[in-house]
Amino acid sequence: MSDVARRAGVSTATVSRALSGPASSVRGETRDRVLRAVEEIGYVPDRLARNLRRRSAQIFALVVSDIGNPFFTAVARGFEDGARAADHSVIIADTDEIPAVESRRLLELVAEGVAGIVLASTGTTSEGLEQAVRARIPVVALDRRIDAGFDTVACDGARGAAEAVGALIAAGRRRIALIGGPEAISSMADRRDGYERALREHGIAVDPELVVHGDMREASGHDATAALLASARPPGAVFVANNLMAMGALRAIFASGRRIPDDLAIACFDDFAASELIPPGIAAVAQPTYRLGAGAAELLVRRIAEPGAPVREIVLPGRLIERPSIGLARAA
Amino acid sequence: MSDVARRAGVSTATVSRALSGPASSVRGETRDRVLRAVEEIGYVPDRLARNLRRRSAQIFALVVSDIGNPFFTAVARGFEDGARAADHSVIIADTDEIPAVESRRLLELVAEGVAGIVLASTGTTSEGLEQAVRARIPVVALDRRIDAGFDTVACDGARGAAEAVGALIAAGRRRIALIGGPEAISSMADRRDGYERALREHGIAVDPELVVHGDMREASGHDATAALLASARPPGAVFVANNLMAMGALRAIFASGRRIPDDLAIACFDDFAASELIPPGIAAVAQPTYRLGAGAAELLVRRIAEPGAPVREIVLPGRLIERPSIGLARAA
DNA sequence: CAGGCGAATGTAATCGATTACGATACTGAT
DNA sequence: ATCAGTATCGTAATCGATTACATTCGCCTG
Q: Domain A50-155+289-317 adopts which CATH fold?
């Protein structure tokens, strides 16, 4: 940096101001001289030194339960692009949906000096979250609301679920089971709400026996479905609250020898790569994953620019992709 | 840090040595005093300052073509665990399989001061790679070899492919097509080799008309398969060199109305989540993804410990998961 | 014309840990 | 008793960019 300063005939302070200070802090001509010197020498500012001075690294963190879940990887794609546009790298951390792990990861990220965190929380407030707030690191809630006043980006789970369940009803099913997720996770609670709302709107009572909860992983979807199918009065359709459990549900259904949609209709939240290829084609509510991720990055960037701004919430609609697993096509 | 020093009655230099210096550099009793003081005060070393001094951040980078590919996310999982065990975070960067993007990402990572890079290269040496080497940042090749002498971790593609193709032959197929990837990518070339070897070993000539190349993405798998099926003498089986193209191939096959395995047998490299659910169950060579990722982390850690050590190569076997898509079961 | 103000820039302190260099004390050998 | 050698620890420089504070200069006002 001092080489640049010498070459441009200014001090290092001026070089710094020309490169990263506000536009008004340096005379136009001086700035040009500095930029030319930078160009000639091929100077690249040292990020590590800058990080120390600024007390923050140019890194955003994405904290999710499992990077193996295609929903989160798709979100990560959008988030990464958004972060890169703001000249930030992305660290990804898994929590395995375990609150203690989530807290630990957050503490590590705070220590790491990340500039912002996007968090798909397990639902429990933790010491890690507290520390992040105390360190004034912006936190954006992804997919799941956090009680306090955090910026949030999510898909409209209630509406998407209601639409999917509505489609099942329109196809003539009335005994529709829900395979839901933990109620502490707001997106899961929302989807349950949508399920119940759709039933009520069509004058169908919610049957507690048809509502079961998994842990959002494949195995739990399988087990829950198997139990439903083995019960005295099995349902005529199931709505599964996320993609992984849906895969488990499908395994259980095929294992039972039932045919979709004749014996059992199915729809789920969260589209997945193979949904078309699994016969007869599985209906799903597709989330705008890329835009969720990009939106999260955007919220972080804005919050950094104006820390005091009012809390913002981005809620994007999902889109029901109707496929034959629903059963009869709806009347147009 | 000076608080700790004062409390322990030593200098900051001693604190630093006690915490991160070699064991011999400080008297046992002194170290204990320091550690106690650290405990009492709740001191946490500042990573940003340490990074500046050490001229390197405690971060590993994973550079892949597309984090949306489940193979890479599965690898990422193992890599992340391995990195964390060594107290490093993980940055993930996508290249979209574009050499220029790969080079740019690498340059950014070098500037970022990452401590090590795991790279699934597009196959072209780039300025970014040069810079990484010049900066003495260890680079481990993942899945795909890089010409020069880099540590490498990969699955045995030739053997896995030969096994899968061998199974198709054992099931009575002789006209077996290959949907391969770009030859510049070593893992793809290996799989092609395995394909050809299996054919030769069974006295079947390699028919150039049955060998087509995609770009490893789903659409190319679809198009290549559609073209094969529409040809004058369509194959009796296909072996697809990766998971994404396999999904595309399946779409094309179903669209053509053909039945698996009666009309067309299929097997692919890289197992994927839905392979069981897609009828009749799609045979695939499963890679030990988690261990590939963990192995990459391990290679990085060792290379950092001994920069001069001889080049190491970890090659892990894949496992053919036989499913009905192959056709007749092999004679036991 | 004095005094005040703002724009533009320079000087040097600062972020917090690491480490080169030097000082001290203690060991054992001669 | 003297001295080399080693183990242990302290002082202060260092990493490279940012920024508080000081300085200079020009311009405007009363």
A: Rossmann fold (3.40.50)
